[in-house]
Write a structure and sequence with these properties.
Blueprint: E1 2-7, E2 11-13, E3 34-35, E4 38-42, E5 45-50, E6 58-63, E7 68-71, E8 73-75, H1 87-94, H2 99-104, H3 109-118, H4 121-137, E9 140-146, H5 153-162, E10 170-178, H6 189-206, E11 212-217, H7 224-236, E12 240-245, H8 253-260, E13 264-267, H9 273-282, E14 285-288, H10 290-295, H11 304-309, E15 314-316, H12 330-339, H13 345-352, H14 354-358, E16 377-380, H15 387-390, E17 397-402, E18 405-409
Parallel strand pairs: 1-6, 2-7, 8-9, 9-10, 10-11, 11-12, 12-13, 13-14, 14-15
Antiparallel strand pairs: 1-4, 2-3, 4-5, 7-16, 16-17, 17-18
Helix pairs in contact: 5-6, 6-7, 7-8, 8-9, 12-13
Length: 411
């Protein structure tokens, strides 16, 4: 007898293509692996998917009530640990002040740095728990989360330790000490870069507080050469590289990702078809962040269709943060990817599950509904998976299963 049977689904999306190793790219980007039947779970693992699972004896049955089953969302790019919010800056932007102008005046990331440094550990833990609860409510079962609002050895390590919180949502940690230059190093950027390379990244790696390192390669932040130096320093410590690339201007960050062997390059509003080819050949996943593009109302958008045509795999994430993407909703991200970036619903779902798992090195465990994998899945209150991209502003998640246990359920 198995532990749990998830039955009576209208559709099951496995997001795994038999015989094809993920990530899925090109024509396979939209292969959701649609099957009928049920999902059987035992000891936290999937033991059967499809018609063969129907009728298996189980200690517990989760009735999908004709809804869609799919893997739990994997949010592979978030800034989930921060203090306070930046609603005042949002109001300024509504009056026409640009994001970059606010940043030049000491707002933006720097304002979040001030708030985090002033917050207590208890403050950070309480706010982070609220964020994770909301992620789970909306169907996200694993997130990648970055530091980057501390910008000192003490506060970067504080942030990374906070992300070790016990919660149903799994948190994969990234050190983003190179988010910007902190105010106290405004006249000594080389000095701060040395601290990042020689102190913060080695400490995060030695204490096993992070798996990845990241850098914001953008005008007025870190240059191509600085970004490469920082990522190579992290890689030397055993931290796999990621990069914020080509979001607000073309700085060549995606090419840095290719040079250092990054697992992903994220944002990518200003990349080209040739960049997509280079990323494909270097094994770099293109992580697109449509919620940030929407919230900043950017006129420039990634060449999504060209990226797909060049067989470069795409993942999606919220970019959850207090300044440019205050949302934990992957359902909204899927809608925005369809409306603003021209993806199909199927392509977006693959990007939010198995490809996102690849972008954090977790594809062998999560991201698809296949035998032997960790049993992370969600039940949608929808009869057709395409409605996930069609309805927006909705809460379509009826139930969430994490490691084989029902952790969220609503009638």
């Amino acid at each position: 007898m198995i532990d749990l049977l998830v039955a009576n689904a209208s559709q099951i999306l496995t997001c795994g293509r038999r015989g094809e190793a993920p990530p899925l790219a090109g024509k396979l980007q939209g292969e959701v692996g649609l099957v009928a039947g049920a999902v059987a779970i035992d000891k936290g693992r999937i033991v059967e998917v499809g018609p063969e699972a129907q009728g298996l004896a189980a200690r517990e049955t989760l009735d999908a009530l004709g809804g869609v089953l799919l893997p739990g969302f994997v949010d592979c790019h978030t800034h989930a640990v921060f203090a306070g919010n930046r609603v005042a800056e949002f109001e300024e932007r509504a009056r026409g002040v640009s994001y970059e102008e606010i940043s030049k005046r000491g707002g933006g990331i720097k304002s979040s740095v001030r708030m985090l440094r002033e917050a207590t550990d208890a403050d950070l833990a309480a706010q982070l728990k609220r964020h994770l609860d909301r992620f789970l409510d909306l169907g996200t079962t694993t997130i990648e989360a970055k530091s980057g609002y501390g910008l000192s050895l003490e506060h970067e390590l504080r942030s990374l330790r906070a992300l070790g919180i016990a919660h149903e949502v799994e948190v994969v940690r990234t050190c983003l000490a190179a988010h910007t230059i902190p105010p106290e190093f405004a006249e000594d950027r080389d000095g701060y870069i040395r601290i990042v390379c020689d102190e913060i990244l080695p400490a995060a790696a030695e204490r096993k507080l992070a798996e990845f390192c990241d850098v914001f390669c953008e005008r007025n932040v870190f240059t191509f050469a600085e970004a490469e130096k920082i990522l190579r320093a992290g890689k030397a410590c055993g931290l796999r590289p990621k990069i914020h690339a080509d979001q607000l201007s073309r700085q060549g960050g995606c090419r840095v990702a290719c040079r250092v062997g990054a697992i992903s390059a994220d944002h990518l509003e200003f990349v080209t078809k040739d960049d997509a080819v280079a990323m494909r050949e270097a094994g770099v996943i293109a992580v697109l962040l449509p919620a940030a593009n929407y919230f900043l109302d950017q006129p420039d958008r990634p060449p999504t269709r060209a990226i797909i045509m060049m067989n470069c795999p795409i993942a999606l994430a919220t970019d959850f943060n207090p300044g440019s993407a205050p949302t934990q909703s992957m359902p909204f991200v899927i809608n925005a990817a369809c409306v603003r970036f021209g993806m199909t619903v199927a392509e977006a779902i693959v990007a939010a599950t198995i490809n996102a798992a690849c972008a954090i090195g977790r594809q062998k465990e999560i991201g698809s509904l296949e035998k032997g994998k960790q049993a992370d899945l969600i039940v949608l209150d929808l009869p057709d998976y395409r409605e996930l991209g069609y309805w927006f502003g909705e809460h379509p998640v009826r139930a969430v299963v994490k490691r084989g246990r029902v952790v969220r359920s609503r009638a």
